[in-house]
Design a protein that fits this description.
The protein is α/β, with parallel strands linked by helices and about 240 residues long. It has a domain of about 170 residues: P-loop containing nucleotide triphosphate hydrolases (Rossmann fold, 3-Layer(aba) Sandwich), CATH 3.40.50. α1 runs parallel beside α3 and α2 crosses α8. It is globular. It binds guanosine-5'-monophosphate.
């Protein structure tokens, strides 16, 4: 393994490790109000490969002015095309990834098409503690794990291309994978699509700007929702005077 990726999982693990709450903190003299971080969301975006999630997520995060932090996953798959280590993924070896699992560095991890993918836990914890929303582009297994871990904070969006035919065209059009690999990805896509009904929202990614606006609107609406425990609106109503 190249020197540059040595201990990559460890490095990710050190980014933003959240210190345990100190028992010497100032005594609470009034009823505790939820910390700002309790209002921030974990926005899970899933959908079949070829749905265009990656671009949607990058653009959503870029236009948020730092309020929606895109998590960069670790993976054991090889970089594709112009993918850059540390920007699109942290590309690591299986051994490094497994060391990361053992050290508890992942909020969730899953094996997708024979490769490991995982969400570095310190980044999420750090962003939530800072009151930022976190955006995760992960598969349906990852979505299940994140829902179990972050509960009411999680808002999940399933992204689909306009039709199955367009999905197939997009998967073939990538041009970087063998025919066998494309077939495997299509089978994987079908297995993901049957889980769409478990998500809070469905967004069809036909026109990219519309899909982006829709997900942004979902995020804003979820902050304003009174019926979601810990939402910004629920917090504001509790503390309004
Ligand atoms: P790709 O290899 O096409 O970049 O990604 C394959 C699948 O893995 C996609 O559905 C993508 O959303 C998912 N994925 C990417 N990062 C993670 C991760 O950290 N955890 C999980 N569970 N899935 C991921």
């Amino acid at each position: 393994m190249a020197k540059s990726t040595k201990n990559r999982v460890g490095k990710v693990g050190r980014r933003g490790i959240v210190a345990p709450k100190s028992s010497s903190a100032a005594p609470v003299v009034s009823p505790p109000v939820p910390r700002p971080s309790s209002r921030s969301l974990v926005l899970v975006v899933s959908g079949p490969g070829g749905a265009g999630k990656t671009t949607l997520c990058e653009k959503l995060s870029a236009m948020s002015g730092g309020r929606l932090a895109l998590s960069i996953s670790c993976t054991t798959r090889a970089p594709r095309g112009s993918e850059v280590d540390g920007r699109h993924y942290f590309f690591v070896s299986r051994e490094e990834f497994e060391r990361g699992i053992a050290a508890g560095n992942f909020a969730e991890h899953a094996e997708v098409a024979g490769n490991y993918y995982g969400t570095p836990r310190p980044f999420i914890e750090q962003q939530l503690a800072a009151g930022h929303d976190v955006l995760l582009d992960i598969d349906v297994q990852g979505g299940d794990s994140v829902r179990r871990m972050y509960g009411a904070r999680v808002v999940s969006v399933f992204v689909l291309p306009p039709s199955r035919r367009i999905l197939e065209e997009r998967l073939r059009g990538r041009g970087t994978d063998s025919a066998e690999r494309v077939r495997a990805r299509m089978e994987l896509a079908e297995r993901e699509i049957v889980r769409a009904g478990d998500y809070d929202y469905l967004v069809i990614n036909g026109r990219q700007e519309e899909a982006i606006a829709e997900i942004d609107a979902i995020r804003r609406a979820e902050h304003a929702r009174l019926t979601r425990e810990g939402s910004g609106a629920a917090w504001a109503l509790k503390t309004w005077s």
